[in-house]
Amino acid sequence: MRSPNRRVGRVLRASTRGFAVGCRVMRENIPAFGALVSCAPPVGDGAIYGLIYDVSVQDDPFVRQLVTADLPEEVLRDQRENRQVPIEVSVLAVGYGDSETVYHCLPPQPPVALDWLHQCAPDEVVAFTARFDYFRLVLDAREVPADELLAQSLRLAAAARPEPERTEFLVEAGRELARLLGGDLARLEGLLRRIRPARNSP
Considering the entire predicted model, what is its pTM? Predict the structure, then answer.
């Protein structure tokens, strides 16, 4: 069973290409751009995997009144944490699978409204990103900031690994990008610059 503290929110609407999730409040780094998340149905052990590509904070009539009011901090904090209009999180579908096999392709069916979306644990991130077959789904997605999304997801996937493995992971990802984008050198260079491991200052 997934940990409740990794819940991002509940599905508002969905298609096989992605889905939108509503959550009450942002806490710590959840939700975060580029994070790997999964949506599991109420029955069975299958899951649909996706990358968060947008977080939208909508206003409501009460917030419009509060922005010009001089109110105590506890009142503002209560409004942030108990919003009437949910924060909307948009997710690009990049795979699906069960406890034994994960497929890096669009799921055959979308999640159902009100299903829980969870942030993937580090071991899930490592397992999902052990192969790079999902790169093409991200690179070809027109409705998302594809290059920024892929680069950020790779940085987060590297951070989920032990320190000695991070640089090699990013190098291997760069090689796969070079194979996929060999005909678009400007785009390839931009992506490689974004995922280049940081060098320690002397």
Answer: 0.84
